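User: Protein folding is very new to me. Would you mind checking the protein record under this note? It all follows right here:
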Amino acid sequence: MTKLSNYASKSFLLVEDEPFMREVIERILKQAQAEQVFRAHDGAAALELLEEKALGVHCIISDLHMKPMNGLQLLQAIRSGQNRRVRRDQPFIMLTGTAETEAVTAAISLDVHAYVLKPVSPEKLLAAIDGLSKRKLEIKSAGHYSGIVLPPA
């Protein structure tokens, strides 16, 4: 394994419905000395947590396939400003086990910062996190993001 990044001053929101995968990703973040890792089991729980706790996180790392609210729906809610406590340009990394064309296209349209395929390695995840500072978003209108049609869950 290569030298890990140091995220001692950064907190993350991990949105993942599979306990094993959640543990793997959390372990990677803790090895990189993340200050704090908040967890949610789906997009709806993540939005609720962000609203209740007014979390200011460095990055949201979310699985694509979850119910009742998947990762694309969560990203769309954030970009369209559905939660006033979350910056619309919130750094967001999407995780998925498949590279479905429709999902990738939707994520790009929603200005996802990075798209990481599972299985997640420390190198891939940390490279995506380190790349966040290199991708500055030109946020479009809330209506633009609300109008993006998402593929069926």
Observations:
- The longest strand covers residues 11-15.
- DSSP finds six helices and five strands in the chain.
- The mean pLDDT is 92.
- Helices lie at 19-31, 43-53, 71-79, 101-109, 122-130, 142-146.
